[in-house]
Amino acid sequence: MELKTERLIIREVTWDDLNDIFILESSPEVDEYNTLGIPDNINVTREHLRPFIEDQKAEVRKKYSWTIRLQATDEFIGHAGMTLTADRFKMGEIWYNLMPSHWGNGYATEVAKRLIRFGFEFLNLHRIEAGVATENKRSIKVLEKAGMTIEGIRRKILPIRGNWVDNYHYAILEDDPWDEA
Ligand SMILES: CC(C)(COP(=O)(O)OP(=O)(O)OC[C@H]1O[C@@H](n2cnc3c(N)ncnc32)[C@H](O)[C@@H]1OP(=O)(O)O)[C@@H](O)C(=O)NCCC(=O)NCCS
Q: Are 17 and 50 in contact (CB under 8 A)?
């Protein structure tokens, strides 16, 4: 499955992407607000990807994970995903990580908006959520530019390098006013 934006291709992950994703997850800048931690070796990333790749065979999909690539060159620039809850909630949660060399070009915002559209139009969701460490200013900006609304704070919920960190809870509803442009 492939989603396109003006500048990006968002393509479902395959095992061929393992090394690129391992390099991404090994970046200390990417890890700063991430609960996964830096992988000790590529097998840690392999096990992290496995449920997403196995889900591609499921009759009812629950997990999506995509590489983010530049349309112009097909260069790998990041990894994004969406996890769905039980069907009756019609709800999904999105996340994204970009290679630091590509930060600041509006790519994450482009990805977040496309995933929101995918969630509402293709998956027929009612509500899409995202969580972000309260200090993660870049990602907060992305979620707000993507049209999400802050709904609250979850105190000391994120285990990050041995500390408990606060998390802002964001969401957008299918009938919220939304402009993808
Ligand atoms: C968060 C992340 C995905 C943002 O990617 P990106 O492509 O640089 O995001 P965008 O360019 O779409 O938007 C970033 C915004 O943050 C702003 N920003 C950058 N540094 C900032 C700072 N220190 N304080 C406040 N805003 C900042 C930028 O100016 C930009 O807003 P603007 O377009 O209004 O100028 C990227 O930094 C990343 O991968 N971080 C590590 C992983 C991560 O935190 N993932 C999200 C987990 S919730």
A: no
In this predicted structure, the answer to whether residue 29 has a pLDDT above a threshold of 90 is yes
pLDDT single digits (tens) 98-133: 999 999 999 999 999 999 999 999 999 999 999 999
Question: Ligand 1: residues within 6 Å at CB?
Answer: 30, 33-34, 95-98, 103-109, 132, 136-139, 141-142
CB 133 within 8 A of CB 167: yes
Return the closest-CA partner of residue 108 out of 152, 62, 141, 61. Answer: 141
Among 25, 141, 150, 161, the mutation site with the greatest number of ligand 1 atoms within 8 A of its Cβ is 141
CATH ID of 2-173, from 3.90.226.10, 3.40.630.30, 3.40.50.300, 3.30.160.270: 3.40.630.30
71 Cα to the center of ligand 1, angstroms: 20
% of the chain residues with pLDDT over 70:
100
Mean pLDDT value across residues 147-158: 98
